[in-house]
C-alpha cells in the first residue's frame, strides 16, 4: 500500500450497468490496495454486484455496502426496478434518472453518519458538488464515458458551422485528428453533457475507465480546455483480473457459450452484443440476423428482450433461422445476460459487432478483439470514431440516425447488406481484416502493459492514492 494509513472512501455508482460495473471495479481495485471502501447503493443494485465483491471480502479486503432506500413508491415504480437494465421505455428510464436526484438526502445522511476521507460519485450525481462543498468532504468524479468523447462533444459545440448541411458526413474541426460523423448529433445531448461536466468543478479531478496510451492527445486537449486533472484507471476489468486475487473457485459453472466456443477455430467467431440497454427494433434485428447468416461466419448473438410477450413472439427471427444456424453449428443465440468479458477473452472470438458502449470498447481492447461498429445512442457515435478513424482497430457500419435514447428502436434501419459487408471485411481473413486485427492486438499489448506493475494505469492509481494521502485526518 502506498499511503500511510488506509483511506476511507465512499463510492456512489449510478443505476445502470455501464456505470455501475466499472465504478464497482474501481472500488475493488482500491480495496485491494488496503483502503477501506464503502459502496453506497440501493438493495436491487447491490444484488447486481454482490457476488463479485463477495470474493474480495472472503480474501480480507475492506469492502462494504451501505444500503439506502430507492424511492419506488414515490416514483410509481414496481419493487425491484432500480436500474436502467430493467427499463424498457424512456418513461421508466426517466423515473430511474429522477431517483438519482431523490436519493440525495439518504446519501447525505450516510455521509454525515460516518464521514469518509473522500467521496467518489458517478458524474450523473451533479448535486454531489454542492453537498460535498457544504459537508467539506473532498470529491473525485467518475466519468463512465471516454475523454475522447468529451473532446468530440466540446468540438461539436464550438463549431456549429460544420453541421449546416442536411446530410452527412460532417467534418469535425479543432481536434488532434481529422474526424467525420455520418449523422448529425442532437443538440440536446451536448447540452446534457455540458451540465454534467460542470459537476466536475471543485473536484480533485475525473477518473476514467481508460488508459493513457488510448487517448493521450485527447487527454492533453481536455486538460488544457478544462484545467481539470484526468486519472486513467483502466481498463478496469483487466486491472481487476490482474491485481485482485481470487479465492480458489469451487464448482463454478461455465456458461454454455464458452463450451460452444471451445469447438471453434481461433478467431473464427463474431460476438454480437448491443450492451445492457439498447433495444433494437424488430426490423433492425431481422436485418442483423439476415446479415449474420449471409456473412457465412460463425457468431454468438445476444438479444435482450426484457418484455415477456416480446420474448414469446420473437417476431424478428427470420423463418427457420434458429434451426438453420443450430444444424450448421454456426450460430448461438443468448437471450439475456451474456458473460461478455469471458466470451471476448475466448481464443475462438475473432470479432465483436458492438454498439460501442465505452465498457464494451474497453473490454474488447483488453481481449485484443477487433470490432465492427454499429453505435446505438449518445456517446457511442463518438466511440466509433476512436475505434475506426483514430486507431483503425475496427470496421465501421455506422448508424442511419442519431438517437439519445436506447429505447423505442430507431425509425431508420441499417440495412443487412451494410452489416454483412462490414462483417466480411473483418472476418474474411483478407489483407484489410488482418491489418485491423494486428492493430487490435497492438492496442491490447499497450492495455496489458498499462495495467501491469509500473504501467501507466497502475502508476496512475498509485499517484491518485498518493494525491489523496494528505486528506487523511492528522
Ligand atoms: N454486459 C454483459 N452482458 C450482457 C450485456 C452487457 O456482461 O449481456 C456488460 C458489458 O460487459 C459491459 C456493460 O455490461 O461491462 C455494458 O456497458 P457498456 O458501456 O458497454 O454499454 P451500455 O450497456 O451502458 O450501453
From TrEMBL:
Keyword vocabulary terms for this entry: Glycosyltransferase, Transferase
Enzyme category, top tier: transferase
GO molecular function terms attached to this record: UDP-glucosyltransferase activity
A Pfam family: UDPGT
Transmembrane regions listed in the UniProt entry: none
Gene3D superfamilies: Glycogen Phosphorylase B (3.40.50.2000)
Annotated EC: 2.4.1.-
InterPro entries named among the record's database cross-references: UDP_glucos_trans, UDP_glycos_trans_CS
PANTHER family, per database record: GLYCOSYLTRANSFERASE
Family membership: Belongs to the UDP-glycosyltransferase family.
Protein name (record): Glycosyltransferase
Naturally occurring in which organism (per UniProt): Phaseolus vulgaris (Kidney bean)
Amino acid at each position: 500500500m502506498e499511503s500511510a494509513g488506509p483511506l476511507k472512501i465512499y463510492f456512489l455508482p449510478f443505476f445502470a450497468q455501464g456505470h455501475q460495473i466499472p465504478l464497482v471495479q474501481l472500488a475493488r481495485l482500491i480495496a485491494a490496495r488496503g483502503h477501506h471502501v464503502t459502496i453506497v447503493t440501493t438493495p436491487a443494485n447491490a444484488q447486481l454486484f454482490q457476488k463479485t465483491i463477495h470474493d474480495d471480502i472472503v480474501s480480507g479486503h475492506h469492502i462494504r455496502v451501505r444500503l439506502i432506500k430507492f424511492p419506488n413508491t414515490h416514483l410509481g415504480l414496481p419493487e425491484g426496478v432500480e436500474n436502467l437494465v430493467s427499463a424498457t421505455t424512456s418513461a421508466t428510464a426517466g423515473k430511474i434518472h429522477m431517483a438519482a436526484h431523490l436519493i440525495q438526502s439518504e446519501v447525505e445522511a450516510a455521509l454525515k453518519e460516518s464521514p469518509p476521507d473522500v467521496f467518489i460519485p458517478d458524474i450523473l450525481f451533479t448535486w454531489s458538488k454542492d453537498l460535498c462543498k457544504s459537508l467539506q468532504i473532498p470529491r473525485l468524479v467518475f466519468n463512465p464515458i471516454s475523454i475522447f468523447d468529451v473532446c468530440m462533444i466540446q468540438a461539436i459545440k464550438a463549431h456549429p458551422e460544420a453541421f449546416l448541411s442536411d446530410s452527412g458526413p460532417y467534418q469535425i474541426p479543432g481536434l488532434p485528428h481529422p474526424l467525420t460523423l455520418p449523422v448529425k448529433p442532437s443538440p440536446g445531448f451536448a447540452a446534457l453533457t455540458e451540465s454534467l461536466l460542470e459537476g466536475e468543478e471543485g473536484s480533485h479531478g475525473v477518473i476514467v475507465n481508460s488508459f493513457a496510451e488510448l487517448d493521450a492527445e485527447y487527454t492533453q486537449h481536455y486538460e488544457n480546455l478544462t484545467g481539470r486533472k484526468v486519472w486513467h484507471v483502466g481498463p478496469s476489468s483487466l486491472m481487476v483480473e490482474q491485481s485482485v486475487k481470487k479465492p480458489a473457485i469451487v464448482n463454478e459453472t461455465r456458461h454454455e457459450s464458452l463450451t460452444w466456443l471451445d469447438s471453434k477455430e481461433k478467431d473464427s467467431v463474431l460476438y454480437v452484443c448491443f450492451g445492457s440497454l439498447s433495444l433494437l427494433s424488430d426490423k433492425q434485428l431481422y436485418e442483423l440476423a439476415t446479415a449474420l447468416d449471409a456473412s457465412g461466419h460463425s457468431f454468438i448473438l445476444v438479444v435482450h428482450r426484457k418484455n415477456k410477450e416480446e420474448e414469446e413472439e420473437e417476431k424478428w427471427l427470420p423463418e427457420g433461422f434458429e434451426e438453420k444456424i443450430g444444424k450448421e453449428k454456426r450460430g448461438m443465440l443468448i437471450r439475456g445476460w451474456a458473460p461478455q468479458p469471458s466470451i471476448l477473452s475466448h481464443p475462438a472470438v475473432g470479432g465483436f459487432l458492438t454498439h460501442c458502449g465505452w465498457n464494451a470498447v474497453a473490454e474488447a481492447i483488453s481481449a485484443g478483439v477487433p470490432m465492427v461498429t454499429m453505435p446505438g445512442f449518445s456517446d457511442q457515435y463518438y466511440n466509433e470514431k476512436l475505434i475506426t478513424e483514430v486507431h483503425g482497430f475496427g470496421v465501421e457500419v455506422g448508424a442511419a440516425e442519431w438517437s439519445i435514447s436506447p429505447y423505442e428502436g430507431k425509425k431508420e434501419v441499417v440495412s443487412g447488406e451494410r452489416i454483412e459487408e462490414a462483417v466480411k471485411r473483418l472476418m474474411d481473413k483478407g489483407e484489410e481484416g488482418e491489418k485491423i486485427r494486428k492493430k487490435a492486438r497492438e492496442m491490447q499489448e499497450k492495455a496489458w502493459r498499462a495495467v501491469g506493475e509500473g504501467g501507466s494505469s497502475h502508476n496512475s492509481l498509485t499517484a491518485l492514492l498518493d494525491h489523496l494521502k494528505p486528506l487523511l485526518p492528522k
